[in-house]
Write a structure and sequence with these properties.
By secondary structure, the chain is α+β, with helices and mostly antiparallel strands. It has 9 helices and 15 strands. Strands 6-9-8-7-5-10 form a 6-stranded mixed beta sheet.
Length: 279
């Protein structure tokens, strides 16, 4: 564990705690309360005898292959983000970048601009802007690699922008210009399914921990775990996953997460531990 800045609270950096039992029947041990507690609080027991190591092997593989978001979602003690900050506080605007020339100008000039007809105003709670680079314009460089902290926002005519040459006839178009205190590079967030709209929104926590664009729209820790589970199923059977209207579509099934605590498959409530049987 490590100490937080206030010198009083602590946060855990471990994934959990496990006891090894001298037990050979792994199928029977799955129903044991000490094994079930691992799913709930990440503390429990595994059977461990020669030839009886598949459960602990699979668990360690999941830890090694898991994303930062999945690891954080399983922590028993809260760290610097609470659930509201993780999933509800959408203070990041994800905005499309036209092409590499515009992207380089934005990063170098510490700004971003967009026609006012495309974005009437910037939400008052937005503190950061992330740049989405589309597959169409950036090919292998597509995804999200940069974000900046907003310094101020102004309106001007397109001709007033000195960093990027104005196309003929657009000189009097009204633009919103966002100036940044800084722009930072982050590990690339891979594009999944389709690109962002002109703008979309996420939280700073998700932006700094996501590995793909699906993960930018998580609404709860439960959704983190559900997505991990169905992605594993999709990879195993070569299924595709689409997210439409906050529902995951996989293998002609529709998976919903209701009120951050209930899982439904085609309208039927299922337990997380039984999810694979319904997909």
């Amino acid at each position: 564990m490590s100490e937080l800045d206030n010198n009083v609270q602590f946060k855990y950096k471990t994934f959990g705690a496990y006891v090894m039992f001298s037990y050979s029947n792994e199928k029977q041990f799955i129903s044991h309360k000490f094994y079930k507690s691992i799913e709930k609080v990440n503390i429990g027991a595994f059977p461990m005898l020669p030839g009886s190591t598949s459960l602990i092997t699979e668990h360690l593989r999941n830890i090694i292959e898991g994303t930062s978001l999945e690891a954080r979602s399983k922590r028993v003690v809260l760290d610097e983000y609470d659930d509201y900050s993780k999933f509800k506080l959408e203070n990041v605007m994800v905005a499309n970048v036209k092409d590499e020339k515009h992207c380089n100008s934005y990063v170098k000039g510490l700004f971003y601009h967009i026609p006012k007809k495309s974005l009437l105003n910037v939400r008052s709670n937005i503190e950061y802007v992330a740049f989405y680079q589309s597959n169409k314009s950036f090919n292998e460089s597509s995804g999200i690699k940069y974000y900046g902290k907003i310094k101020d926002i102004i309106e001007y005519k397109r001709s007033e922008c000195r960093e990027i040459e104005c196309r003929k006839g657009a000189e009097n178009e009204e633009y919103i210009r966002i100036n940044f205190e800084w722009i930072k590079e982050i590990p690339k967030i891979e594009p999944i399914q389709y690109g962002t709209q002109i703008v979309t929104y996420t939280t700073l926590y998700l932006l700094l921990n996501a590995q793909n664009t699906h993960e930018l729209k998580y609404k709860s820790n439960l959704e983190v775990l559900v997505y991990k589970k169905i992605k594993k199923i999709a990879d195993k059977h070569n299924y595709s996953i689409r997210k439409i209207n906050n529902c995951y579509h996989i293998n002609n099934r529709i998976i919903q997460i209701i009120e951050d605590k209930i899982i439904k498959v085609d309208g039927v409530i299922v337990k997380f531990s039984e999810l694979e049987n319904y997909v």
